[in-house]
Write a structure and sequence with these properties.
five-stranded parallel beta sheet, alpha/beta, Rossmann fold, 190 residues, 14% strand, binds adenosine-5'-diphosphate
């Protein structure tokens, strides 16, 4: 099993680069943001709850997010591995993911962290808003809130995996192909 956490701030390119990793390594892509957005579209109870946080640039509560992610993993019993995109976003989520995967004897293989400076992130998100239809991309105040939440609550998750020797930082500025190649070079051989 190859379990990759693709990490980085909003707008770093996690979704874009996931597409390559999925195809190249035959992995299942689990994006918590995508799953929440599908629930919003389907007007589920989970979607209604998630939307109230997402529209403000806040994190959806850990208990809801963790149980959703765990059931998604269990929905793919024959997966060769997973790309976790947008999860874990808090140290509590990281501890939950570690114990959940350790319990299945399929621990996290590595964390690949896309590194992009804040000004570039803001420009990318505003540009993405033109085509994404995402309300959280269109509002500069919500973008700033997401970046602040990332710095306060999510960035420490990198230290959690660095302590386990699983962290690799990757320069997230360049062409899509250049960044793809940097990621490929950083994936541990099985
Ligand atoms: P981005 O990385 O561009 O911010 P995502 O699609 O990953 O976009 O996330 C969009 C929003 O979904 C987040 O701002 C947050 O409200 C919610 N969300 C996604 N993943 C998580 C998570 N692991 N924990 C809590 N909230 C999450």
């Amino acid at each position: 099993m190859l379990n990759i956490i693709l990490f980085g701030p909003p707008g770093a390119g996690k979704g874009t680069q996931s597409a390559f990793l999925v195809q190249h390594y035959g992995l299942v892509h689990l994006s918590t943001g995508d799953i929440f957005r599908a629930n919003i579209k389907g007007q589920t109870e989970l979607g209604k709850l998630a939307q109230s946080y997402m529209d403000q640039g806040q994190l959806v509560p850990d208990d809801v997010t963790i149980s959703m992610l765990e059931s998604e993993v269990d929905n793919h019993p024959s997966a060769k591995g997973f790309i976790f995109d947008g999860f874990p976003r808090t140290t509590a989520q990281a501890h939950a993911l570690d114990s959940f995967l350790d319990g299945r004897n399929t621990p996290v293989s590595c964390m690949l962290a896309l590194d992009v400076v804040e000004e570039e992130l803001k420009a990318r998100l505003l540009s993405r808003a033109k085509t994404s239809g995402r309300p959280d991309d269109a509002n500069p105040e919500v973008i700033q809130k997401r970046i602040d939440v990332y710095n306060a609550e999510t960035a420490p998750v990198a230290g959690h995996y660095a302590l386990q020797g699983k962290y690799t930082g990757v320069d997230g500025v360049g062409t899509i192909a250049e960044i793809t190649e940097r990621l490929r070079a950083a994936v541990p051989s099985e």
